[in-house]
Structures are given as C-alpha cells and as structure tokens.
C-alpha cells in the first residue's frame, strides 16, 4: 500500500509530501491543476521511462520518492531478499532522481538500483488504469493476460510459455539435424580428429608458460653462466671482493659502536647486509649446480613449441586459447553425438513436447473455469452500468499449440437484448467502450493481489445515475482489507462516495504556476462537491445538494 509520495521540482510542483490511507480515495480539481501529474510522478518512481521535460523550470533536477507499506506483501519481501536489497519487512522506499539533461538515477531503500528493478517491484505494488486503458483491452494479448490474472494462473501460463520455448528449440534442432545429417556427421568426424590431436599435447596454459620460459633460459644458457660466475667473482674472488670490503666495514662500525652506542642501528644494518651477501653467494652457487643446458632437452622443447604453433596455425587458434577451445569443441561434439544416440534430440524433443502439452492442458482447464466466472462477473457489472440485458463472454477457441497455450482468448460482448455477441471493438461505441472497460477492470481485478489500484479519469464520458454506480463499484472495490483505490475524477457522484478526498489546485507565484494538493475536511468537501456540481457559481442549492450526496 502506498503511504507517502514526496515530490520536489517536478513539472509544476515545487515541493509536496502527501500521505495516503487505505480504502477509496478521490483526487479532484480544476482541469490543468495537476491531478495527473501525481500519477506521472509515481509512474516514474515505479520505473517508467522518462520522456523528458519533467524538471521544473529553472531547476537542476526533479526528485520523487514513494514509500510503501509491505508488511503483508510477501511477494515484494521475497523479491528484496532474492536481490539482496535491505528491508525491514515493514516499509519500502523507491526513489527516482531525474536531471534536467534527461539522465536519471534510481534507488531502492537507499541503494542504487536499475529501472528494470523498479519496474519489477512496481508490478507487485501498484496497478494504474488510465482513461485510455480501454485501447489496450482491444488487444487479444491484454485479454489473455486479464483472464490469467483473474484466474490466478499467471505462473502456470509463464511455465507453459517456457516449456514451449524449450520444446520449440529442440524441434528446430531436430529438423535442422534431419535436413543436414551428412554435414553434421562430417563435422563430428572432424571434431573427433581435432580433439584427439589437441589432447595428445596434454596442454595446460601453465605448462605452456613454463615451456616458453625454459626455452628462453636454455637458448641463452652460456650468457647466464657467464653472468652468474662474474657476480660470484666480484662478490668474493677478485682482489677487491665485495664480501671482504663489507667485512672490513663491519669491523670498523663494531669498533665505533663500542665508543658511541648511537651507531647501533648502523651496526645492525651492516650485520644484515653481510648475512644477505653470504646468502646471495650460496644462492648463486646453487643455481650454477642446478642449471641444465642439455642440448637434447633444448631440441625436445623446441620441437614441442613448434608442434603447438603448427597446430594453432592449422586451426587458427592461439596457444593461449587452447584450453577454452577444447571445452567448446567437446561441448559441440557431445551435442552432435547426442543427436545420434538413442537419447538424442528426437527423444528429448518428444519429452519436451509431452511436458508442454501437460502444462498447456492444465492451463486450458484453469482458463475454462476462470472464463465462466469472469464472464458472469463482467455481465453483472455491465447490468449495473446501464447495459440492460447485455452480456459478456470470454470465448476460448482451440488452436494449434503456441507459446501461450492451446486456445485463443477473445472477449465478446452483446450490448443489448437480442444482440449477437461480437468482439468488443466491433460491438461497442466509444461511450459504451469506456463503460465496458470499467466493468471489465472492476470485475477482473476483484481477486488482484496488487494492494494499490489507481484509476486516472476512467469515468470520462459517464454521467448521471451511471456515474453514481461507478462510484459505488469503486467504493466496493476499496472495502477489501488493506486495499487502496485512488481515483482521479471530475464526477461529483464518484468523488462523494470516497472515504478520503484530496483537492488539487494551482496558484501563480513569482511568475510561475505551481500545483498544490491537500486532504480536505468535511466542510471543504462540501464546497468541492458543490463546485463539481455547479461550476463557477456555487449556490446554497448546490451546497445543499453536495451535503446530501456526502451524507448518503
């Protein structure tokens, strides 16, 4: 449930912090006051794409934060845990900062997030229905989604989709293999030869690096021996041997130390230097004893290096890539061999098709049950919205298997008694389509798990007694425990039935237009309902009418 929306420097809003409550809330105000701006701001906090021009004039950035109560939203809590985002299990804070140059940053509970993460969370937090939402209802994909959401089998639909994709991939592999069996057979034979040749090297990247180092060392062996011998000679054998000179220095410092203890550090250093010099001599002598310049070993090393380079040139592979290439070839060979085995692609394809069919059949049964209930619910809602004797049908037509199941889903409507049921885009006029859209939405989301639903002027084109019925339907929808229904409306009949009523207004300040919103008390509500009923001139009669509507 949305509990707070804070907006800073967004379009014509300078600074706003608004608390929301559960139940049915109405937002009203003059046209252009900024009612839909609130929905636009919330949509951006939920990860909607920024189309630009949202930062208030002369400001650097817009800042939007939305706080949600998630104590009863286990789906959101689980998502936060899976994505390693901190949460106390009570509140969730989504924030979006949009700069004037169009760049933006997103945050979840104070941590940097992606827009995709905001979108994923938003799907479990808020559903927004706009006045143009009936356009999406004309699409078969939207009709299918409404039925699956209503029936509570969206997860089964997603599983069916994934199983179809897995089967279709294997089917294409099978078809491709059958078409190019000889080509694959030749490829397999070539892979076996290449793998056998590569495995003969017993190649590892570590051995390759050592082999090259040994080759460099043995190729310059005489230089190495000469240099090491010269070092030893300078250290201890010639007339000016370094070790003799260091020992002399050590003796002198030791004598000086007996006179002045301040030379203790220097004495320790010369002792250490002498020890290190002796260790250096031992190390150089050990190296000379171990160095192996066997000409035959050098030939073996050069032959192995040449063989590796020849193989690499032949197959256009660098030695550094031999190990990864081996894995790639092995995986491809295993794949080709599986095509030829008893448990090859044919068997896998049949198993995958069986798994898809099983899931799709379960989905078909679930859809059949849900379609009957949804048809009844929407028909009942239509009756309330002046579709006298009208009827609604969710039609399931069998079709060849697709990623979306074994049937096509289509919404049919008969708008009056005796009318033939037809697709909604053919059977309903513009005004009827608006009412029908509302009936479908209200009836289909009665089982929705999303705790916050926002209707943005979905009652456009509706008036009179139908408007009052719409208000009652929305109020009834908001009676559900911990459900929140926010409605932006121009109809007094709808707004008067709200539990909470917010007014949106705009003012001119410092040559700028600013939007404001506040929760109204009973007296303020009477004036606002009267304005919605009577227009500019508010009379005692319209006030009395407004008071009567609020008390009904």
Automatic annotation (TrEMBL):
Stored Pfam families: SMC_N (PF02463)
Coiled coil location: 174-201
Keywords: ATP-binding, Coiled coil, DNA damage, DNA repair, Nucleotide-binding
The keyword DNA repair belongs to this UniProt entry's keyword annotation: yes
Protein's UniProt keywords contain DNA repair: yes
Domain RecF/RecN/SMC N-terminal: 12-510
SUPFAM superfamilies in UniProt: P-loop containing nucleoside triphosphate hydrolases
GO cellular component: bacterial nucleoid
UniProt xrefs under CDD domains: ABC_RecN
GO MF, one annotated term: ATP binding
GO biological process: DNA recombination; DNA repair; SOS response
Record-stated family: Belongs to the RecN family.
Its job: May be involved in recombinational repair of damaged DNA.
Protein name (database record): DNA repair protein RecN
